[in-house]
Amino acid sequence: MKPNMKRFLLSALFTVMAISLLSAQQKENWYGNVTAADSSAVVDAQWRRVEIENGVYYMSLSFEGNLFSSNQFISAVEFTPSANGVAMELLCSEQERKGTSQMASEAGVLAAVNGNFFSFNKPHNAVCHLVVGGRLINGNGDENRTKRGRTNDGVLIIDSCSRVTIANPDDLDMDFEKRLGDPYVMSCGPLLMHAGATLPIEEVSFNYNRHPRTAIAVFPNGKIWLVCVDGRSAQANGMSLVEMRAFFKWLGAKDLLNLDGGGSTALYIEKSVADSKGIENSNGIVSYPCDNKKFDHNGERRVPNCVAIRVVEKQHSLE
Predict the structure, then answer these.
(1) What is the rounded distance in angstroms from the CA atom of residue 159 to the CA atom of residue 140?
(2) Residue 211 pLDDT > 80
(3) Do 99 and 245 fall within a single domain?
(4) Are residues 203 and 250 in the same domain?
(5) Order of strands across the sheet with 56-67?
């Protein structure tokens, strides 16, 4: 064998071995296994529930090593759109990014979570479709894209009667949102459950590593949860999307849409409430956002949009 060919083959072999080793190391932190014991822990868990408005509940729950062999802290707001004068909407700050709490407080809403993925570069727009109050804020990113990705394979739709739908458009239908005429539309993803069915999750680190997560869950009885799963701390390890999908399947959700997570994850409530740890929020934030690398309520990241619920006049509801 010629020396040059030998060197080439050795180089190729070392490259393949390095790639395989890197892949194995990356997968060491993948969390895709769920057990019957995990299911029982979720079904038997006792949520702390506080009614913050007629028919609207703040809920929190913590696990200490007994869910996915990890520590978890989950907070949510449960409500039924169009009932008791409660409506869901989207908020947007176009000129500058703001904390979810600031955006929600300025809008006078009851509760809010951070919204969809965005660019850290100005003008900080969402990187997928967003319509707020009937006005197009951003399209589905690069016009040359011909297929949906994990950031826009699900669509949150809020119609003029406050009815909420989570749609599952065809992967090749990049114009789905353009054909809608609803006042609030937000694309995001991955879409983890739809119409009661669990959807496949791509085997990539974003999906299988544990991170803080924000999501919208819809249940067969019409109730909706705005949810935050805290993470990146010893007290709250975060979830992989496989774990979060299993968590809500066990709770009986029919639709589950992942929103932007990580340092963006934050849940705001207008009223002061204590969580399952007995800690009361002082700034409206009831989750434990991690951008300050501390397990407290002060690590909020500034974001360009959020999902909110508002108390409205009765005549605006379906009833």
Answers:
(1) 20
(2) yes
(3) yes
(4) yes
(5) 48-53, 56-67, 70-79, 224-229, 213-218, 255-258, 191-194, 197-198
pLDDT for res 25: 45
Q: What's the confidence (pLDDT) of residue 28? A: 61
Same domain, 43 and 16: no
Contact 149, 204 (CB under 8 A): no
In this structure, are 52 and 1 located in the same domain? no
pLDDT mean across residues, the chain:
90
Q: How many domains does the chain have?
A: 2
- Distance of alpha carbon 53 from alpha carbon 299, whole angstroms: 26
Residue 21 pLDDT > 90: no
CB contact set of 41 (below 8 Å; sequence gap of 6+): 63, 66, 67
Half-sphere exposure of 11 (CA within 13 A, CB side): 6
Sheet holding 111-114, edge to edge: 86-92, 305-311, 111-114, 267-269
- The verdict on 196 and 290 lying in the same domain is yes
Q: What's the distance, CA 128 to chain centroid?
A: 14
What is the predicted pLDDT for the residue at 5?
64
Question: Residue 143 — very low, low, confident or very high, per pLDDT cuts 50/70/90?
Answer: low
Place of tokens 């605006």: 316
Average pLDDT over residues 192-212: 97
Q: Are residues 169 and 295 in the same domain?
A: yes
Strands (E), 177-274: 184-188, 191-194, 197-198, 213-218, 224-229, 255-258, 267-269
From residue 172, give the alpha-carbon distance in Å to each of 140, 169, 188, 192, 202.
12, 8, 15, 18, 17
Instruction: Identify the domain containing residue 21 by its residue range.
Output: 1-30
21, 39: one domain: no
Q: pTM above 0.85?
A: yes
Q: How many CB atoms lie within 10 A of CB 268?
A: 29
Helix, strand or coil for residue 101? helix
